[in-house]
Specification:
Organism: Methanoculleus taiwanensis
InterPro entries: GrpE, GrpE_CC, GrpE_head
CATH topology of the largest domain: Hemagglutinin Ectodomain, Chain B
Biased composition (Basic and acidic residues): 1-10
Strand content: 15-25%
Main location: cytoplasm
Distance between the termini: 109 Å
Order of helices and strands: HHHEEEEEE
Shape: elongated
Helix content: 55-70%
GO molecular function, one term: adenyl-nucleotide exchange factor activity
Strand order of the largest sheet: 1-4-5
Number of helices: 3
Length: 170
């Protein structure tokens, strides 16, 4: 052998001199391993699809039950409104006050709170200006609440519709 010819290792020599039967058995083993892995992959993909469908059904069920529970609580308020409208004028005001308290308690249980806005700076994330009028208050201050806004936990679910001061006109 000359220095310029590459030397073959024993492993390379063994590979080159293998018999065809040995190569075909290796191919069969590799094919079997491939088929096993492919089967595992397909089963895992099917399991994941089933999981996604199951989670979607569970989410829908939870949402439905949450809405149902909230609706049942609101039906108590409706019942009280019906009783109040059937009452005489003297007890009507008192009945309406009780309904308001009940309704407020239901909202608080669900962590729904009103947005305080009067005499505070206008905040476009929580307020929607319906008017911009001259007033004694400094410019940009909310001077009246037309429709109350609400937050659920820390998220605004309805903006307050407010009147904002333009400041004093001279």
């Amino acid at each position: 052998m000359t220095e310029e010819q590459p030397r073959q290792t024993e492993a390379e020599n063994a590979t080159l001199t293998r018999e065809p039967e040995a190569c075909s058995s290796e191919v069969e083993e590799l094919q079997k391993a491939y088929d096993d892995l492919n089967d595992r992959f397909l089963r895992l993909a099917a399991d994941f699809d089933n999981y996604q469908r199951r989670m979607a059904r569970e989410l829908e069920t939870r949402t439905t039950f949450a809405i149902e529970s909230f609706a049942v609580e609101l039906l108590d308020v409706l019942d009280n409104f019906e009783r109040a409208t059937a009452a005489d004028d003297a007890s009507l005001r008192e009945g309406l006050e009780q309904i308001k308290k009940l309704f407020t308690a239901i909202l608080q249980r669900h962590e729904i709170t009103p947005i305080e806005c009067c005499n505070r700076p206008f905040d476009p994330r929580a307020h929607e200006a319906v008017a911009y009028v001259p007033a004694d208050a400094t410019e940009g201050t909310v001077i009246d609440e037309v429709i109350r806004g609400y937050c659920m936990k820390d998220k605004v679910i309805r903006c307050s519709k407010v009147v904002v001061s333009r400041g004093k006109e001279e």
